[in-house]
């Protein structure tokens, strides 16, 4: 028996095969890298049919994250503070405070995802992998929201708005209580819809092109986050272990008359005590027009419902009906 | 069934879905937040919403009466919510008969 493996005579052909195989692989990877990475869909099937491993999905997540990177410092430096209007300053102040609540959300998602992964590992390894992919991605979500929070709070401060005091900072870092994973992901997706449309509205009214660019960049980030949450939520429903009714319930909670979509505009805003819902905290100072986004948000939520559940609804009444049909008694 | 009997059905059914006795909920006129806090079946607003939805579905399935679910803040006493549902019943009860 040869003392080496493979035997010396065979080694060069094996190495040649390996090198040529790796060259093909590297060329393919480089070709892929020129393509714009996208949020992966159909995750449950991908893991169930062993099309990709968690490591491969994680690399895909990283490529998209890196492809989208931008510099908060550069974008802030490009803004002429002297040209900012009162509306700009109020929007920045509100946005900075609202974004403070995202870190606890991402921390919670990371913990919940790992917990759920362990729960499903024996019963449904594909679902466990989906949960782990979600928890792994949450580190990118956390980082990207850090860009939003620090950019807006910094800009608001240098533009002369009241700084976020330590007490408020800590209050807004309270962690949302745990809930069912599908409800959690659906709520997060809807939260991103609200944020993205609000920032698009802020961009439209921005008085400086560099500020407009910042709001547009953040809005695009939030849409990407929404796509990820939708993808994970859909995978949960595809597994058969999570039920469409819970996604419908969250959507209805937002769009119904007096629902969460109306945020701080409502006559009665809940004092939750345990956590802060950022949409309840917006303060327009009484004389600044808020971007009008309710209709757009509602339409996007109906689209999200279809993406998650294949259920088509075009009104609040239809959504309520679809939800109640599935709740049963 | 009369509107009074239907109202009693709604109270009993909701209490059952909330996992609390009628006495506990009605006699103390607990708020919606207090009901969620005391219930072992409910943890948050979504669970509460679902309990009301199940109640409405049961009413529809058993008695053919349809009610819309009102929206109330969590500090609303249960009596106010039940009254809002009861106000929909006589009309529906007469339709059902």
Describe the model:
The complex is a heterodimer of chains A (about 325) and B (about 100). With about 325 residues, chain A is mostly helical. Chain A has 13 helices and no strands. The N terminus of chain A is likely disordered. Helices cover about 65% and strands about 0% of the residues of chain B. Chain B is globular and about 35 Å long. The C terminus of chain B is likely disordered. Chains A and B meet through helix 11 and helix 13 of A and helix 4 of B.
Summarize, please.
The complex is a heterodimer of chains A (329) and B (97). Chain A is mostly helical. Helix content of chain A is 67%, strand content 0%.
Question: What keywords describe this structure?
Answer:
heterodimer, A: 329 residues, mainly alpha, 67% helix, disordered N terminus, B: 97 residues, 6 helices, disordered C terminus
Most extensive interface: A-B, 20 and 18 residues
Q: Termini of chain A, distance in Å?
A: 73 Å
Could you give the distance between the termini of chain B? 8 Å
The largest pleated sheet of chain A is described as: none
Kindly report the average pLDDT value of chain B.
88
Major sheet description of chain B: none
What percent of residues of chain A are in strands? Answer: under 5%
Mean pLDDT of chain A, to the nearest integer, reads: 87
What is the chain-wise order of helices and strands of chain B? HHHHHH
- What structural class is derived from the secondary structure elements of chain B? mainly alpha
Which stretches of chain A are low in confidence, meaning pLDDT under 50 for 5 or more residues running? 1-12
Q: What's the Cα radius of gyration of chain A?
A: 23 Å
How are the SSEs placed, and which strands pair?
The complex is a heterodimer of chains A (329) and B (97).
Chain A: H1 8-34, H2 43-48, H3 54-67, H4 72-77, H5 86-99, H6 102-120, H7 125-158, H8 166-171, H9 181-205, H10 209-239, H11 244-255, H12 294-309, H13 316-327
Helix pairs in contact in A: 3-7, 5-7, 6-7, 7-10, 9-10, 9-11, 9-12, 10-12, 11-12, 11-13
Chain B: H1 3-18, H2 22-27, H3 32-38, H4 45-63, H5 78-86, H6 89-96
């Amino acid at each position: 028996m040869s003392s080496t493996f493979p035997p010396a005579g065979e080694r060069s052909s094996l190495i040649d095969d390996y090198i040529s195989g790796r060259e093909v692989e590297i060329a393919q990877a480089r070709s892929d890298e020129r393509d714009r990475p996208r949020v992966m869909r159909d995750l449950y099937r991908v893991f169930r049919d062993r099309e990709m491993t968690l490591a491969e999905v994680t690399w895909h997540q990283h490529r998209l994250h890196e492809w989208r990177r931008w510099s908060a410092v550069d974008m802030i430096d490009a803004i002429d503070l002297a040209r900012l209007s009162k509306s700009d300053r109020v929007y920045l102040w509100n946005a900075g405070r609202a974004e403070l609540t995202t870190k606890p959300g991402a921390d919670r998602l990371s913990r919940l995802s790992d917990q759920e992964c362990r729960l499903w590992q024996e019963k449904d390894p594909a679902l466990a992998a989906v949960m782990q992919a979600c928890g792994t991605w949450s580190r990118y979500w956390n980082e990207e929201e850090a860009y939003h929070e620090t950019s807006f709070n910094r800009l608001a401060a240098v533009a002369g708005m009241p700084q976020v005091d330590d007490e408020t900072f800590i209050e807004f870092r309270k962690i949302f209580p745990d809930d069912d994973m599908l409800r959690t992901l659906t709520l997060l997706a809807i939260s991103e819809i609200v944020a993205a449309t609000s920032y698009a509205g802020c961009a439209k009214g921005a008085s400086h092109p560099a500020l407009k660019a910042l709001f547009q960049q953040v809005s695009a980030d939030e849409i990407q986050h929404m796509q990820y949450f939708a993808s994970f939520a859909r995978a949960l429903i595809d597994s058969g272990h999570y039920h469409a009714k819970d996604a419908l319930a969250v959507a209805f909670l937002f769009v119904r008359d007096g629902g969460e979509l109306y945020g701080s505009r409502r006559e009665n805003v809940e004092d939750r005590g345990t956590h802060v819902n950022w949409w309840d905290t917006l303060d327009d100072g009484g004389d600044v027009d808020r971007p009008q986004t309710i209709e757009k948000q509602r339409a996007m939520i109906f689209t999200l419902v279809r993406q998650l559940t294949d259920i088509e609804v075009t009104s609040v009444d239809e959504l309520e009906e679809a939800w109640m049909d599935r709740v049963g008694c | 069934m009369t509107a009074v009997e239907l109202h009693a059905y709604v109270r009993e059914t909701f209490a059952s879905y909330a996992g609390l006795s009628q006495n506990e909920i009605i006699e103390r006129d607990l708020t919606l937040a207090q009901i969620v806090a005391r219930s072992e079946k409910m943890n948050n607003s979504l669970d509460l919403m679902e309990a009301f939805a199940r109640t409405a579905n049961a009413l529809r399935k058993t008695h053919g009466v349809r009610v819309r679910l009102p929206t109330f803040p969590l500090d609303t006493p249960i009596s106010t919510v039940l009254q809002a549902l009861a106000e929909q019943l006589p009309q529906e009860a007469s339709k059902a008969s």
